[in-house]
Amino acid sequence: MSDETYVGAIDQGTTGTRFMVFDHDGKVVASAYEKHEQIYPEPGWVEHDATEIWDKTKRVIDEALSDAQLDADQLEAIGITNQRETTVIWDRESGQPIHNAIVWQDRRTTDRVEQLEADGKTDEVRQKTGLEPDAYFSATKAEWLLDNSDPIKLQRSRPEDVRERAKQGDLAFGTIDTWLIYKLTGNHITDVTNASRTMLFNIHDMEWDNDLLEEFDVPGAVLPEVRPSSDDEYYGTTDASGFLGAEIPVAGALGDQQAALFGQTCYDPGDAKNTYGTGSFMLMNTGEEAVTSEHGLLTTVGFQRSGEPVQYALEGAIFITGAAIQWLEDMTLIESAAESEELARSVDSTDGVYFVPAFTGLGAPHWDQRARGTIVGMTRGTRREHLVRATLESIAFQTRDVAEAMESDSGIELSSLRVDGGAVKNNFLCQLQSNILGTDIVRPEVDETTALGSAYAAGLAVGYWETLDELRDNWQVDREFKPKDPQNVEQRYGRWKDAVERSLDWARDGAE
After folding, report:
1. Which residues pair with 315 in a beta bridge?
2. Residue 439 is labelled as binding a ligand
3. Which of 92, 280, 64 lies closest to 172, judged by CA?
4. Is 143 annotated as a binding residue?
5. Which residues does ATP bind (predicted)?
6. Could you read off the pLDDT of 287-319 as tens digits, one per residue?
């Protein structure tokens, strides 16, 4: 065994879990990945089995270390990054969830959010949390779980026992980072970035908000302690008698999009990145100022290091981008995601076809929970190549929607945009994005920036890296795409906005 040491990162995403090991240069030395089941109990409902996620997490850690012939003792720290907003509540005594986790994409609490708006609470929520009231966030999910979980799982016979046990502190609430920290260390902790996505946390006071807890009837006794994203005091250590057989500090955590911001070394105000995953999430660092959006963006916590001020960010959350490519596969229009590039290149245009992939409503800057997927402009001559190209264009157009809002809110013109995520392997999409934004698109050599960001946070906490400049030095450009051949971008963007209008407010009660 080598005496080299490394930092590990658990990247728990919407469709699966990856464990990656990074060296001091930020290079990947080990990686393993496993998917988990997507559970759809009813239309618009999305759940995960949190126990399955924990089992898969242990498995990928073991597999990555084994494949690279590394010993757990060679890990100086572990960082965690996670799908945000996805909510789990578990029994502290048994360690078992009381219900499947409710995923960020889930829309079952749409009516509850609309009631919140009808009650005139929207501005209060925005002011305190920086968020647009939406079923996307954790608050209404937690409320639903407490009201609807099966008391049999708590070995009780009455539904009211669930809420009673919550008030007594017998239950624990968390996003997936909290669940994994609990399973790894036994401690009930979240970080500032994940707390800021719950719609229960005041991002100005940096504490749980009593008024919001009362509004959503979430007892304070179920909440985790909130700590910095990179924590010199650690969240805890793994158990030497546990599956790793070693005591390893768990010292960093960030929600996946903030982790990508950190991994892309966007440490200065105005730095921006866009991650293309199941959805797309564009974040701009705004420094120590929590910029209030006037254009449908979210104000969120970007990251915090121990003993330092919170760094804020503006965020544009696009719910469906990479998932639209998956839909093309599901519909057998393509055999693999890689085929989308070839097919899109095979035609000169979409032939007037526009696809708005609002499968779970529209996020920023539209925020329409009842929007639905819409294809317009088809003729008898429309072929699958046109629809595939329209799908890639929808990703780029949605990003422009967000970029224009971000420039308006921040007063900063985007000169370049750092990109990451699975879809940026598609050179056609990257060039298309540059053309439609009129901005340089910069792709780094290490595109697993979400995992890298959480590794950096943990490594900084334990002294594996000393300064942010070390991390900046690690960041290397793979390829840069500059705007060219715009092909009537402004006219096409205008038609895109027309198509979005047709998707809005579609899913009405009794109309689906």
Report:
1. 283, 298
2. no
3. 92
4. no
5. 14-15, 278, 322, 326, 422
6. 998 999 889 899 999 999 999 999 999 999 898
Instruction: Name residue 17's amino acid.
Output: T
- The answer to the question of whether 389 is labelled as a binding residue is no
Q: Is 257 assigned a ligand-binding role in the annotation? A: yes
Contact 179, 50 (CB under 8 A): yes
Question: What is the rounded CA–CA span in Å between residue 156 and residue 146?
Answer: 14
**Is 299 annotated as belonging to a binding site?**
no
- What is the spatial distance between Cα 99 and Cα 352, in angstroms, rounded to a whole number? 45
Q: Read off the tokens for 236.
A: 């805890």
Residue 326, annotated as binding a ligand:
yes
How many helices (H) and strands (E) the chain has is answered by 16, 23
256 carries a ligand binding annotation: yes
| H or E stretch covering 214 | helix 210-215
- Work out the end-to-end distance of the chain between its first and last CA atoms, rounded to an integer number of angstroms: 60
pTM attached to this predicted model: 0.86
- Check residue 302 and report its DSSP letter: E
The whole-number pLDDT of residue 157 equals 46
Residue ranges with strand state E in 365-461: 374-376, 416-420, 440-444
Rounded Cα gap, residues 45 and 39, in angstroms:
8
CA angle at 276 for the pair 40 and 49, rounded to the nearest 5°: 30
14 annotated as ligand-binding: yes
Residue 317's φ and ψ, nearest 5 degrees, are -100, 115
User: How many C-beta atoms lie closer than 10 Å to residue 397's C-beta?
Assistant: 25
Query: If 0-12 CB within 10 Å is exposed, 13-18 middle and 19+ buried, where does residue 243 land?
Result: middle
- Any known ligand binding at 100? no
505 phi, psi to nearest 5 deg: 55, 35
